Amino acid sequence: MQGIFDKIQSTTYTLLPNGQTTLCQLIMENGFSIEGKSSCVDPTEYNQFLGEKYAYEDALKNVWPFEGYLLAEEMFRDKQLLDEYGISFE
Q: Alpha-carbon distance 86 to 13, whole Å?
C-alpha cells in the first residue's frame, strides 16, 4: 500500500497579505488539492518556518478523511465484485 507522503505530488505555501496567515496547498498524485492553514496573532511575530510547518500539518490532517473515504469505497467495490462472482471467504 502506498504511503500518504508518496501520494503528494507538490506542496505550495502562500503567505496572505495580512502577514500572519500561511496557506499550504497539497496537490495529490491524482490532481486533487487539499489545503491547510496556520495563523499567528501578531504579524510582527510571524515566523515563516513555523507558519509553513503548522499549515502543512493542518493540510495533512485534512487528507485523512479523503483517504478513509477512498479505502471504504475500495473495500465496498471489492465486496461487490466478490458477491457478483459468488466468492466468499467465510
A: 50
36 strand-pairing partners: 24
Q: What is the pLDDT of residues 14-55, one digit of tens each?
A: 999 999 999 999 999 999 999 999 999 999 999 999 999 999
Note the CATH number of domain 4-84.
Answer: 3.30.160
Q: What residue spans define the domains of the chain?
A: 4-84
**Region of 48 on the Ramachandran plot (φ > 0 left; ψ -120 to 50 alpha; else beta):** alpha
Rg, Å, the chain Cα set? 19
CA distances from 23 to 36, 41, 76, 84 (A): 6, 15, 34, 45
Tell me which residue of 50, 47, 55 sits closest to 14, measured CA to CA. Answer: 55
Q: Is the pTM of this model over 0.90?
A: no
